Amino acid sequence: MLFLYDYGDEQHFIIMVKRFVTYDYDVEYPELVESVGEAPLQNEAGNGEFQQAFSTLRELDTKLSESTLNLRNALDVLSSSTKL
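Above: the chain's sequence. Below: its structure in token form.
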């Protein structure tokens, strides 16, 4: 199941329902039974660490997009020059 957390930041997680259990009034739900990987940064007011990470990811995405465009242009030029 795809779980969307934080509609503003679009954080997606894959979760798996392993089983349904009888409700236990002594347990606080939902109960996390397993976690894999690092937890994402939380977008807390005044948390510059989150904004810094988000800005860095945006810059990397922009550079990747530009590199992809440059590669496509180079391939187009190469392709058109080899067609005789």
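The radius of gyration is 22 Å.
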